[in-house]
Automatic annotation (TrEMBL):
A GO cellular component annotation in the UniProt record: nucleus
Gene it is expressed from: LOC100824159
Source organism (scientific name): Brachypodium distachyon (Purple false brome)
Entry similarity comment: Belongs to the protein kinase superfamily. CMGC Ser/Thr protein kinase family. CDC2/CDKX subfamily.
Positions of the Protein kinase domain: 4-283
Name the record gives this protein: Protein kinase domain-containing protein
UniProtKB keywords: ATP-binding, Kinase, Nucleotide-binding, Phosphoprotein, Serine/threonine-protein kinase, Transferase
SMART domains xref list: S_TKc (SM00220)
SUPFAM superfamilies xref list: Protein kinase-like (PK-like) (SSF56112)
Reactions catalysed: [DNA-directed RNA polymerase] + ATP = phospho-[DNA-directed RNA polymerase] + ADP + H(+); L-seryl-[protein] + ATP = O-phospho-L-seryl-[protein] + ADP + H(+); L-threonyl-[protein] + ATP = O-phospho-L-threonyl-[protein] + ADP + H(+)
InterPro entries: Kinase-like_dom_sf, MAPK, Prot_kinase_dom, Ser/Thr_kinase_AS
């Protein structure tokens, strides 16, 4: 490791410590991830998921693995260096992001995911800490849990970060799909608006409770398969109506709310793919595309022409290729020359069609949590022993307290300068450069 001079530690994850370092051969700043576990065979190293996935994935929105080195039974990954992660960006943010800023982040995350999913991988641990940022360029990192889409279930080793964990994983489905990444994208999108996590569960059970408190408890009509999963009986305790997302995320546009709602669908089959998400009207705000004028459902009568109405139409989009270019539009109620009929309308005539109605509003929710309280990346704090009693009787009046632990498990450890240098290369070194 003489080639790399450590500047400082920049990350302490579950699997490894990450250091900013200087590559004396290339004069570049790199990120060196030192894996916490020991390795005894080179084959062990190169068969790691993170190595296998990153060797194959080469995309501007996926962090580049430059090489892998083993020394003294310690394994080091050499990555391109990024300034910070999205969690830092959110934490340091004092004012809300503009929707345009959020759109720019989201487009990049989704483009990285489209590439990854199309190449047969899903990430399984998407969260703001794993989205690295330099000059507003976002790259997906930490492929420690990445899995090949075609690998066979059951995926029992899955332990992604709780707040971004999809319900099918929480309920112990034995097989799941790239839709688990899309759930995380929905939660991250909401967090970009509020600067607070959408589902900050303290335990797995509390995580389900928090999801029910926002989306409402699921039933057979919204997620038939979900009702038969091993842990679905937990949901029966939560008879909770959905919250109105507009209230929870007041600074989000209707398009953003609709996208969050779709991404955070209980049923993974109802979540749009990364590719479909990129075609959602949220990414077309400001680009008004007229709906085709020949609409059979609107009679071409003089009467209707005389009183045109406008509808703000957020059309649902599905899996059909034709659906992909649907977008926000002004829909005239009759076939008419728009230029001759300039609209004279009040706000009430602009009707949102979002596919969800105003649900009864739940009186209280957990306080918006500081994003400095992060959940453990792996494993969970044991569930509250009395949760059944707490939730069964009156779930709305017995909301569990939140934020009961201090200090972030993601906080950086004290600096360990020159740690790599302190490990002299006595053992044989194996090194491979990918690029
Ligand atoms: N290429 C990089 N450039 C800059 N910082 C990085 C880089 N890679 C990782 N980091 C920092 O180190 C932190 C931990 O990295 P990473 O997620 O890869 O480790 P991990 O042990 O797999 O973590 P986790 O606990 O999420 O599984 C990241 O959140 C990020 O802040």
């Amino acid at each position: 490791m003489e080639r790399y001079k450590v500047i400082r530690e920049i990350g302490d994850g579950t699997c490894g410590n990450v250091f900013r370092a200087y590559d004396i051969e290339t004069n570049e700043i790199v990120a060196v991830k030192k894996m916490k576990r020991k390795f005894y065979h080179w084959e062990e190293c190169i068969s790691l998921r993170e190595v296998k996935a990153l060797q194959k994935l080469n995309h501007p929105n996926i962090v580049m693995l430059k090489g892998v080195t083993m020394e003294n039974h310690e394994l080091f990954f050499i990555f391109e260096h990024m300034e910070c992660n999205l969690y830092d960006v959110i934490r340091e943010r004092r004012a809300p992001f503009s929707e345009e800023e959020i759109r720019k982040f989201m487009v990049q995350i989704l483009q990285g995911l489209v590439y990854m999913h199309n190449n047969g991988y899903f990430h399984r641990d998407l969260k703001p800490e794993n989205l690295l940022v330099t000059n507003n360029i976002v790259k997906i990192a930490d492929f420690g849990l990445a899995r090949e889409v075609c690998s066979s279930p059951p995926y029992t080793d899955y332990v992604s970060t709780r707040w971004y964990r999809a319900p099918e994983v929480l309920l112990q489905a034995s097989a799941y799909t790239p839709a688990i990444d899309m759930w995380a994208v929905g939660a991250i999108l909401a967090e970009l608006f509020t600067l607070s996590p959408l589902f900050p569960g303290e335990t797995e059970t509390d995580q389900l409770y928090k999801i029910c408190s926002v989306l409402g408890s699921p039933d057979h009509s919204v997620w038939p398969e979900g009702m038969n999963l091993p842990r679905s009986n937990r949901l029966q305790f939560f008879q909770i109506p959905p919250r109105n997302l507009w209230e929870l995320i007041p600074n989000a546009s209707l398009e953003a709310i609709d996208l969050i709602q779709q991404l955070c669908s209980w049923d993974p089959k109802r979540r749009p793919t990364a590719e479909q998400s990129l075609h959602h009207p949220f990414f077309n705000v400001g680009k008004w595309v007229p709906r085709p004028l020949h609409d059979a459902s609107y009679p071409r009568t003089n009467e209707s022409r005389a009183s045109p109405r406008l509808e703000l139409n957020l059309w649902g989009f599905g899996t059909e290729p034709d659906d992909l270019d649907l977008t926000l539009s002004l829909k005239p109620s009759s076939v008419t020359d728009l230029s001759k009929h300039a609209p004279k309308h009040t706000e009430e005539e602009i009707l949102p069609h979002l596919g969800f109605e105003n649900p009864p509003v739940q009186p209280g929710l957990w306080p918006l949590m500081s994003s400095s309280h992060r959940p453990m990346a792996m494993g969970d704090v044991p569930a509250m022993p009395s949760w059944q009693q707490a939730y069964m009787i009156d779930s709305q009046s017995t909301l569990p307290a939140v934020g009961g632990f201090s200090g972030s498990p993601f906080g950086l450890s004290p600096l360990q300068p020159n740690l790599l240098e302190r490990n002299p290369s006595l053992a044989p070194i194996r090194h491979v450069n990918f690029f």
